[in-house]
Amino acid sequence: MQTSRARRRFLGAAAAAAGLLTTLLAAGPAAATPDPGDLLPGVGAPRSAAATAAGAGREIAPGEIPGQDEIVHSKNIKHLANIPSTDPAGINSDLAFQGKYAYAGSYNGFTIYDIGNPKAPKTVTEVLCPGGQNDISVSGDLLFLSTDSSRSDDSCNSVSQPATEKSSWEGIKIFDIKDKKNPKYIKSVETACGSHTHTLVPGGRDVYLYVSSYSPNDAFPDCKPPHDGISIVKVPKKNPTQAAVVAFPVLFPDGGNPGGPTNPGVSKTTGCHDITVLPSRNLAAGACMGDGILFDISKPEEPRVIDRVQDNVNFAFWHSATFNERADKVVFTDELGGGGGATCNEATGPTRGADGIYDITGRGDQRKLVFKSYFKIPRHQADTENCVAHNGSLIPVGGGRDIMVQAWYQGGVSVWDFTDSTSPKEIGYFERGPLTTDKLGLGGSWSAYYYNGHIYSNDIAKGFDVLRLDDWRTESAKWVWMDRLNVQSQPDYR
Q1: What is the DSSP letter of 149?
Q2: Who has the most CB within 10 Å: 36, 104, 256, 465?
Q3: CA dist., res. 459 & res. 408, Å (int)
Q4: Could you give the percent of the chain with pLDDT greater than 70?
Q5: Could you tell me where the beta strands, DSSP code E, fall in 270-317?
C-alpha cells in the first residue's frame, strides 16, 4: 500500500487518521508508505511510578515488552531530561544543532532549545508555521524548513488546500535566526512536489539545498510525472532573499525502480526521500524510495550518479543514509510501513524494516555499493507500537570503529556497532513502553542524534529528550566538539 499524495495533503483529521490506522493494520507489515502523514500521535497513559522522574528506568529481560509508558534503558545510558510537547496533537520531527542550541521541527513549526546545560535544557522560543513535516537545517543565521503539505499560500498563516489547485504552495521556507527569541521569516522557494526533506550542501559564497520530494500525479499542476530527480535551491549567503531553484537534475533517466507488480511490496521510485552529503569527499548517498544511490557532488549544481542498488526482497522504502567516518560504508534505512506500522515484531522478522549495511568498494567512478548485512533492534515491540528504522547519526568514536545512534519510533533509541559490516550489534538502548495497548498508536523517537557528548531525541508525542551514553567504546567521542550539526550534511570528524 502506498499513501497517495492527495491524502498526505491534509493533516490532523481524526477520521482520516482512524481510517489510515485501520488500513495499516489490515495491510500488515508489507505496507510501504511514506512518513506518518496524517496519523495522529497517541497521548499514552499517565506516567507509571517506574517512570515518574528523569533517569528512572531499568533493563528489560529478553523478549519482555515494558509496561505502558514505562521508561527502560540499558545500563550504559542515562535519561537526563525531557521537555514535554506543548502540543499533544502535534507531531515532532527532525533536529539540527548550532552552538548551544538545538532546533526541533514539528508539523506545526519549530522550537529552539538552549542545551548549554544538557541536564536542564530550556525552551527559547516556539514558532508556529504549519506545513508537514518541517524538516529542518541551519546555516549561520539562516534556518530552513521543508513544507510537504499543500497549503493555501507560503505564509505561516496558511491552511490546507488541495494539490489539484494551481495556487497551492509547498517548498522551502527560510528564516533569519540571528535573534533566537524572535526568528523572522524572510523568504520562500516553491519546489516541484514540495519538499519532504532537504539537505544542506555548504559552499563558499552560496549554500545549496538538495530538495527531496516524490509521489507526482497528473492531477497536480505543480507535481506532474515524471518526477525522477531532485530540486536544487541556491541560497546566496549575503543575500538569502535571492534564493531560487537553479537545477532539477534527473537521477533516474530510466525511471528507477518500477515497484509493484514487477517488484511486489516495493515502492516505485518517483523521486528521493532523503539525501546525505559528505562534502569533504564530494560524495552523497540518496535513499530514493525503491533505489539507493551513490553520487558525486563535486559540482553541486550537477550531481552525478556513480552507482545504484536495489533490494527487492527486504527493502520496501529506501528512507535515509549515513556514511561511516572512513567513507567506505553506507547505512541505508528501510521505512517499511511508512513509520505508522508495527514492524518490530517476530512476524516481520529481522531483515525487513531494518538497516542495510553496504561497503563502498573501488575508486572514483568505479566505486560500488556492496551489500553486507542487515541490522534491526533485537527488542521486539508490541503490535500496538509503530516501529521501524528511522533517523540516526554517527557517534564520532574514530579509530576505525563504526558506531551510530538511531531512532526507531516507539522502538526507542538504539546505539549499535557496525565496525564489522557483516555482524552489527546493539550496544545500548532507551525506550518507553507502548503509548497504547488496545490499538496501534503513533509516537516514539523520530530523530536521535549525537552532538557534543550527548544524545538528543525528538519524540513525536513525548517531546525533547536528552540522554547520556557512558561506554568505553564511545568514550573517545566526548573529545569531539562541534559548533554545528545538520546530520544530513555529514561532517568529517577526523
Answers
A1: S
A2: 36
A3: 10
A4: 89
A5: 274-278, 283-288, 291-296, 304-309
